Structures are given as structure tokens and as C-alpha cells.
Prior knowledge:
Chains A, B: Keywords: Coiled coil, Transferase. Chains A, B: It catalyses: RX + glutathione = an S-substituted glutathione + a halide anion + H(+). The structure is a homodimer of 227-residue chains. Chain A is α+β, with helices and mostly antiparallel strands. The first copy, chain A, has two domains: 2-80, Glutaredoxin, CATH 3.40.30; 91-226, Up-down Bundle (Glutathione S-transferase Yfyf (Class Pi), Chain A, domain 2), CATH 1.20.1050. Helices cover 56% and strands 7% of the residues of chain A. In chain A, strands 2-1-3-4 form a four-stranded mixed β-sheet, covered by helices on one side. In chain A, helix 1 runs parallel beside helix 3 (70-80), helix 4 (91-117) packs antiparallel against helix 5 (120-144) and helix 7 crosses helix 9. The radius of gyration of chain A is 18 Å and the shape is globular. The A-B interface holds A 3, 53, 62, 65, 67-69, 71-73, 75-76, 79-80, 91-92, 94-96, 98-99, 102-103, 107, 136 and B 3, 53, 62, 65, 67-69, 71-73, 75-76, 79-80, 91-92, 94-96, 98-99, 102-103, 107, 136.
Amino acid sequence: MEEEEGEVKLFRTWSSPFALRIVWALKLKGIEYDTVYEDLANKSSSLLEYNPIHKKVPVLVHGGKPIAESLVILEYIDEIWNQNPLLPQDPYQRALARFWAKFGDDKVWESMKKVFMKEGKLKEEGIEEAKENLKHLEEELKAGGKRFFGGEVIGFVDVALGWLANLPSVLEEVIGLSLITQQTFPLLSKWTHEFANAPIINQHWPPKQQLVTKFKAMHQIFMNKQA
Amino acid sequence: MEEEEGEVKLFRTWSSPFALRIVWALKLKGIEYDTVYEDLANKSSSLLEYNPIHKKVPVLVHGGKPIAESLVILEYIDEIWNQNPLLPQDPYQRALARFWAKFGDDKVWESMKKVFMKEGKLKEEGIEEAKENLKHLEEELKAGGKRFFGGEVIGFVDVALGWLANLPSVLEEVIGLSLITQQTFPLLSKWTHEFANAPIINQHWPPKQQLVTKFKAMHQIFMNKQA
């Protein structure tokens, strides 16, 4: 395939969980690529040129052509490089995978953000929403009866939800709240360990203490805004 | 294909723009299906069973298996029935189509909702955001130089953005604001007319006066909440 000849470049930050999805996908498929680390306080002209709409990471540039939005990039990677497929082959199973990945972004991520960024009543609402959303994931794992959302190997949904395998533990250190435990969500808790420690995945986590420091500073800013 | 034998059923409301995407896609592909009209104030037990997470329309049920989330359903339909493809064949063009469809939901729709639901400063913010987002669509049409976002025929992005071809004119009657005109966004304005009047699309619009009545009532509720 001609595209396979093209240079692959990933614009990321050291901490973006959305960029991490792309790192995992490329590594799982064994694709060589160059990394450009962005400082979001001082974005490169290349990033602004490649993602003029959102001006965010990740951006994947393949043979000079840029793609933004991490779930869109994942689909692209899966279509271009067929080895170790992320999405299932069956159209119905593919639809379910896309559904859960979207659920992760629209609902789980948004509720967690509310927990982290808000105070008082809004934070309490966020906690209830997060628990409700995590319950759906727990039930999905139960229904599947497999190690991963994707079955016996890591798939699209696992990569999309991968941030759940480390950010909640960072959240715990910053705001003292444990959302995913063996008691509350046993299968999801088991999944976070299995996923976090799986080959390839386990080599690419950002340093936890560095994340805690960053999120503590961010949390302080949000709290000051509401004070 | 075995799936082609399965019964196709669409759960929708008469007015949902997201459900309309599925109507268009099925009709463009010439798929026979049954329609179940839902009253969202009194949801059927089938809807709650088929979409327990979001409890929303549209839901497509194919051979007894339910799929929720309109963009996910569109991908499924395109994978199951190959005729009149919605997504392009080329992986990079597919990625761009998915990017713009997501942009439509995450940015354009959200900014329009803000215009419609908010008052004062928030509404003004919404108007600025909506204009900025529509400008991106205008530029995309200009770059493509074609009748539709999908080229010379209606594609994935056209179907996803189809609500732009009627809801802004409803908005105009309800809150007296014209966002897409020949003066402000000439190509987008032309596209709304081309799309709205295209064969198949033009047969399935909900009655405009009925939409105006519905949106007027909704708008009143939002305004009362903020009063």
C-alpha cells in the first residue's frame, strides 16, 4: 500500500490521554513514527497549520496529510494498517465498539471532568453521573465475560477508555476520591490493572507523580475560579 | 449477506434531526424498514430496552439487534449495505468525513443550542461561536469546490449536517435570527438549498410550521427557566 511508505508523525503532549490512544495504537500495530512534543502554552506553527479548527493534540500526520480527533485517528490507523485490528470485523460488533468509545468520551469523560473541575452541588452531581456511567461499563464487561472490552486482546474500546486505567488514581491523589475500586466496580477495577500492565501499554504511561503535580495545579486554578 | 434478510426497524420521533439522518441514509440506499414513532414524554418499553443507556431516538434495530447513536448507525448502515456509499473509499477521505461529522455535532450543534437556549451574554457568545463554526464549514465547501460536502452526490457529512438545511430557518422564526444567508455564508446557503431540495431528502422533512410551534414552546420553557 502506497500509504505505508509515508512518514508518520504524531503531535502530542507528554500528558494528553487522547494522544496516548494514538501512541498505543501505533505501537500495538508496530508502526514506526516520529513524535513532536507540543507545549500547549506555546503551540507550534505546525500544530496550528495541521489542526486549524481545534488547535489541539493529538494530530497524526501521514505522508504529509494531517488528521485530528483521536477516535477518528484510531479508525484511520485501523484502516491503513490491518495487523492487530482494533475494531472487530463484524459490522454489528464494530457498531457496539464505536458506541462504547463514544460513550466513554461523551459521558464518562464529561462526568469525571465535572467531578474534577467543580465544587459543591455540581461536583456531587458529577460524582453521581460518573458512578452511573461506570456502572454501565461494569455491566458491559460482565456481559462480555472477557479480559478486555475487545475480548481476549486489547481493542478499540480498551484503547479509547485507556485513560480510566490511570487518571482515576491521579484524581484520587488530587481530590481524595476513589471512584473505581474492587468493592465498587470489581470487573472494571480488574480491567484497569490488566490494561495498565499489558505489554506495550505498560511502557507508555506518563510518570504518575508528574501527572499528580500537573493535576494539582490545574485543580487549584479551577477552585480559585469558583471562589 | 445474511443481515440483508433481517427486519429493519427505526425508532424515531417526527421531529428529531438525528433520527432524520437515519431515514435519509436508509432511503438513499433503498432499504425497506418499519418505523416506530416514539413519544419522548412517554417512551415505549421497547425503546428503553433497546437503548437503556441514553433512552433516546434514533435506534435502529436490525434482525433484532439494536444500535444507538446516529453517527454510529450511519457507519453501520454504510457497512451493511454497500450501494450508494455514504463514506468515501479512501481512508484519508473517510477520516476527513468523520472529522467534519463530529465537528458538526460537537461544535456547530452545541453552539446553535446555546444560541437557542440561552439569553444575554451566553447567547451572544453562542452567536459568535456559531458564526466561527459556520465559517469553517463555508471554507470546507470552498476548498472542496463541489455541490455537496461529499462531492457531486450526498455523502456522510451532508447527511450528518442535514439539520443545517432546515433548523436555522425554524430558529429564524422563533428567535428572529438569521445565521446562514447568501450574504454571510454564500456557499453554505447554497448548500442548504441544494441539500433540502435533493431527491429523497426533499420528501422527508418534518412539516415546518409544526417545528416552529414545537420550538416556540421549547424556547418559552428555556426563557422561563432563566427568568
